[in-house]
From TrEMBL:
<keyword id="KW-0560">Oxidoreductase</keyword>
<keyword id="KW-0521">NADP</keyword>
<dbReference type="Pfam" id="PF00186">
    <property type="entry name" value="DHFR_1"/>
</dbReference>
<comment type="similarity">
    <text>Belongs to the dihydrofolate reductase family.</text>
</comment>
<comment type="function">
    <text>Key enzyme in folate metabolism. Catalyzes an essential reaction for de novo glycine and purine synthesis, and for DNA precursor synthesis.</text>
</comment>
<dbReference type="InterPro" id="IPR001796">
    <property type="entry name" value="DHFR_dom"/>
</dbReference>
<dbReference type="GO" id="GO:0005829">
    <property type="term" value="C:cytosol"/>
</dbReference>
<dbReference type="GO" id="GO:0046452">
    <property type="term" value="P:dihydrofolate metabolic process"/>
</dbReference>
<feature type="domain" description="DHFR">
    <location>
        <begin position="2"/>
        <end position="167"/>
    </location>
</feature>
<dbReference type="GO" id="GO:0046654">
    <property type="term" value="P:tetrahydrofolate biosynthetic process"/>
</dbReference>
<comment type="pathway">
    <text>Cofactor biosynthesis; tetrahydrofolate biosynthesis; 5,6,7,8-tetrahydrofolate from 7,8-dihydrofolate: step 1/1.</text>
</comment>
<dbReference type="InterPro" id="IPR024072">
    <property type="entry name" value="DHFR-like_dom_sf"/>
</dbReference>
<dbReference type="GO" id="GO:0070401">
    <property type="term" value="F:NADP+ binding"/>
</dbReference>
<keyword id="KW-0554">One-carbon metabolism</keyword>
<dbReference type="GO" id="GO:0046655">
    <property type="term" value="P:folic acid metabolic process"/>
</dbReference>
<dbReference type="InterPro" id="IPR012259">
    <property type="entry name" value="DHFR"/>
</dbReference>
<dbReference type="GO" id="GO:0006730">
    <property type="term" value="P:one-carbon metabolic process"/>
</dbReference>
Amino acid sequence: MRISQIVAMGRNHVIGREGGLPWHLSGDLKFFKATTMGKPIVMGRKTFESIGRPLPGRPNIVITRQQDYAPEGVSVCATLEEALDKAKTEAERLGVEDVMIIGGAQIYASSLNLTDRLYITEVDLAPDGDAHFPEFDRNNWQEISRETVEAVDDIPEFAFVIYDRRS
């Protein structure tokens, strides 16, 4: 079982601003959907609320300390450990290899040391933001693929990069 994180971040590690994304990249949204479809997704409550609904085609697992939090269509867990156990059970049931962590900043930071693979959309911008992907030592990660999408009009250049943890 592989624990993976998927994120789009700017050069300055910004991933969010005021509960939303600091850009709109339809190519990244398509990549996110294709990469997570059919796999359990783990997220924090704020990320779930910014999306506004369960994402279809994949088990949605939300981490929150709010004991009475019970939105329809999601599994709610109190801790990261509980969420990952639930996600691994779902992955086995579905016959998939990946558990996908989709945010936000606190969940990325607290699970980075447990993560085996990073799917990072590196956006060639340095926007203002209030949510950041944690700094990580790239020496501990091996880039296994990179696909660059050239800038067009008001859409910045970005690259889909996959990193695997070095053993």
